[in-house]
Structure to design on (1152 residues):
């Protein structure tokens, strides 16, 4: 079948190459996945052929109130849409697929390649996507598949991650072999997945790989990543010792972990209720596609729970990050319709805490204790293995693939630097490691590679509700000010000819002070506004902007003196 | 001198005890320091005598935008001000002293007791306090001091913490001995401080202590806390191996750590620039009071730096939590007037990251790497010891003091529970461990103790600028909504008689969409407002509230459809 596809994609318009050396250059452009974790996306461009590896989203930072997430900036591809021969998705996590509904339509809907599970998750998400992303041109691949996308020949190798169906990518380009590891660890005993395709990776060793782009997510961490097998043993320890009901929270996308828990439940005769939309659908997809084995009768619904004693039950759910509306939080807060925490429950947090969530997780744990539950988390025992290679794994991958050049990707800038340091420890030539920023162009010719100072646009593109990129820094700054000190609207009606104030200025305050209990301040503010409007000179009396600025400035000072707060001041001047 | 003080405080009005059993009860009321870390404050009340231990602040949570901090709720003490015989401060950290400027004036300015360093920090803070907290009645104490405060006899014992001059408190009450450990660890080789007063603590063993209130901050952590000595060795390792300039970030209040760094600098012939207002003043105070030894010539100013090669320099500063305006961040961002990061600098983060700061710290580390620096943090080696007892230390303290009852304090609810579990492991009677919430009354009589269901007010009192407690949940909810989706003001002028709209409705939007680039949406919104105002029935035409609600509801729906955002809608209707 790969051959059918081969021909098919060859049919896409192959334009006449422009002359000149420049066009004999392979450009590798990271549009995301550097500087901070998330929104992974890499562009490979040679003459008039472009392929894209991954198309992910990034979750917003604390100083971006109201933002849903951030997607890669593809301004660089504007006008080049028809050159995009294909989009390769390494695995089904949101930081690798999340931008597809937004960006694919803008790129002329190029074909998307991934393993069946990856495509299943992509398709499901497209279905759920609120403004309907439209059709996707999805094509399943595996370790055997060979694709031709324009000048590029693409192959794949299986890697272990914490979701099955994860791939590394081998791209044969006119200037040499480019390898992208995707998110990986080298787990020889993974869960619910085939082990990393070490043999195929090792064969790269003699193929004179030009450059490897490699996962840096855990580059700061020494040693080897835990194997899922070690986790399995620790989880089994809990299963074998826990008398009461087990409630296990983890990520909906951690399908490997979920498979382990199902196996253990079956071994210890426990029945499982799975709750949380995303987790349920992921399990369904994985099961349909044969990535997940579940014995009939293992999964039950809440309504069946009363049929079994508590030591025969597991609730497997989302919310281990303390998310406000997720299942675990609703269970803890007694807001869940079908179940609640009971004395004697043991809650397992089988996922590490995403930075920024520590306090909400702590609050959740407190609530669970108040409800009489015991809590076990990954700090107390190793019940969470990351899906990413640590330093010793990175060294091994580097030795196996043995590339001429290394481009650390997927990680904060300091992670990339630590990845480089690790490589240098193995004797890798520092001059052949390129640490780029998002949007920075890396060029390869037959003569070799260099990191340029050329940059394509890579500013944040923020998604808020239906708006993509319409929340500007101005809007964000306003949100931050409104959040910190609220706002106050001053409505002053002014008599046209004389420019004198008519009646009392109206005042509305939100998020600044509680008006009901701040009558005095409001009165003083009214008086102040009158005073401001009184003593301004008649000429400018009808100069709207002048009056507004005056109110804004004088009142701002006044209110800061009184309160040490700086509410946003919105003067409304009505001339009658 | 303790005797003078003895007499003096005896002079305070000793009122006639009311009759009845109830008044023979000692009440212990935690007003803070439970449920979450911070704003520590405990009230001891017997008949008409009250003493308070600690008066701290707590830093706000993510969902409290604009709030500076939270202080204990003292509504319970209203009307009882004159019974408050004294306030005892265990040590000089903000979560134990921070509420003093706010609360002391409201309690009739009772005398405050603490070690000279604690009082020095309190006095300095009072001096800096923006609305001038007024005079404080400060009295120095030490391990030798005996106080009589109403019916209470108070003594102290030294404990190790990460600030010198930390005390535990022994209160002799009519119903028995009450011991409060304060923040403590049992460090026999502390830095810049006398070791914990183990002998005096051990002597409590035979004194039939009624109840111990003990620090739970590190109760979830197994084993013993590092000693400052271990940290010293690790820091020395860095000092001995680092060729270039050392830049060390830590907490301004971590005076123990600061003393170590000064010693090491002197040993390795490095000169130190200390930067950061709070750190500078703390060091000055500690030095003046003899808590800190610094050789002449060790401390230099930025202007002297050029006189020394980089391997002879240390910059010791604040900002290890990634705080936006602190020294380290300004150095990294090249916003510091006197210095900047140079290639070859080694930055040490010698403080653990406070939950919630992880991402800002990561961003800071990235920036430092970009500037060409090396970064060492506490995750890479043990260069930060907590100031709090871990599980084995807690067991030891319990065995030493040997109280009848235990009240775990200072920690999230789950920490208190884990503290209890640790005690039970040592054979402590579970029925004699009281885990309270803030405001929950614990009572002791000669017959014994019990935790009641009676609660005194303990709701958050939030400080925002000059406002104390004036930011209500309403204001906070508004701030959250404004932060998430911004706001939009609709100004409609209506003709009095007919109730018809005059001219175009005006629209101001902030934090919702960027008006300049959303002209179409704004136009549609105007049209929508016209439509809303057209088809409402004439009777209600002048019913202000009716029209406003209609605009709020209909427009809210309309905008959500268009944007999936829910901006706050503020209709302004002017009738002419």
């Amino acid at each position: 079948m790969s051959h059918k596809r081969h021909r098919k994609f060859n049919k896409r318009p192959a334009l006449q190459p422009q002359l000149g050396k420049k066009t004999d250059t392979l450009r590798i452009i990271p549009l995301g996945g550097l500087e901070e974790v998330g929104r992974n996306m890499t562009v490979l461009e040679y003459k008039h052929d472009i392929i894209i590896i991954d198309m992910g989203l990034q979750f917003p930072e604390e100083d971006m109130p109201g933002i849903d997430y951030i997607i890669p900036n593809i301004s660089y591809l504007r006008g080049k849409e028809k050159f995009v021969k294909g989009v390769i998705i390494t695995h089904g996590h949101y930081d690798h697929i999340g931008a597809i509904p937004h960006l694919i339509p803008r790129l002329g809907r190029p074909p998307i390649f991934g393993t069946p599970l990856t495509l299943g998750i992509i398709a499901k998400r497209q279905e759920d996507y609120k403004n309907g992303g439209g059709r996707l041109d999805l094509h399943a691949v595996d370790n055997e598949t060979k694709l031709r996308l324009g000048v590029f020949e693409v192959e794949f190798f299986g890697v272990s991650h914490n979701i099955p169906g994860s791939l590394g990518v081998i791209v044969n380009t006119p200037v040499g072999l480019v390898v992208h590891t995707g998110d990986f660890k080298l787990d020889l005993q993974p869960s619910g997945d085939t082990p990393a395709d070490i043999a195929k990776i090792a064969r790269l060793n003699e193929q004179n790989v030009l450059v490897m782009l490699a996962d840096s997510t855990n580059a700061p961490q020494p040693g080897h990543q835990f194997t899922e097998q070690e986790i399995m043993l620790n989880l089994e320890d809990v299963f074998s010792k826990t008398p009461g009901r087990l409630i296990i929270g983890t990520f909906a996308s951690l399908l490997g972990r979920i498979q382990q828990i199902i196996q253990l439940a079956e071994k210890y005769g426990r029945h499982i209720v799975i709750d949380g939309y995303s987790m349920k659908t992921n399990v369904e997809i994985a099961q349909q596609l044969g990535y997940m084995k579940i014995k009939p009768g293992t999964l039950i619904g809440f309504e069946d729970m009363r049929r079994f004693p508590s030591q025969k039950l597991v609730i497997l759910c989302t919310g281990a990050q303390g998310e406000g509306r997720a299942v675990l939080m609703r269970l803890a807060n007694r807001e869940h319709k079908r179940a609640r925490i009971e004395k004697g429950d043991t809650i397992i947090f089988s996922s590490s805490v995403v930075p920024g969530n520590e306090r909400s997780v702590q609050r959740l744990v407190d609530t669970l204790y108040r409800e009489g539950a015991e809590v076990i988390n990954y700090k107390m025992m190793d019940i969470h293995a990351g899906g990413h290679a640590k330093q010793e794994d990175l060294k091994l991958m580097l030795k196996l693939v043995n590339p001429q050049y290394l481009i650390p990707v997927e990680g904060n800038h300091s992670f990339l630097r630590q990845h480089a340091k690790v490589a240098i420890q193995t004797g890798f030539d520092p001059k052949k490691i390129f640490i780029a920023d998002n949007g920075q162009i890396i060029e390869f010719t037959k003569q070799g590679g260099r990191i340029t100072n050329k940059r394509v646009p890579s500013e944040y593109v923020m998604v808020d509700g239906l708006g993509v990129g319409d929340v500007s820094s101005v809007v964000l700054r306003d949100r931050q000010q409104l959040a910190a000190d609220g706002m106050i609207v001053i409505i002053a009606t002014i008599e046209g000819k004389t420019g004198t104030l008519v009646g009392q200025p109206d005042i509305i305050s939100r998020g600044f002070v509680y008006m009901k209990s701040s009558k005095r301040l409001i009165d003083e503010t009214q008086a102040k506004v009158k005073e401001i409007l009184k003593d301004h000179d008649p000429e400018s009396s009808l100069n709207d902007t002048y009056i507004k600025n005056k109110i804004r400035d004088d009142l701002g000072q006044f209110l800061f003196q009184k309160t040490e707060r700086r509410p946003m001041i919105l003067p409304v001047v009505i001339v009658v």
Remarks:
- Chain A has a mean pLDDT of 90.
- Residues 544-563 of chain A form the longest helix (20 residues).
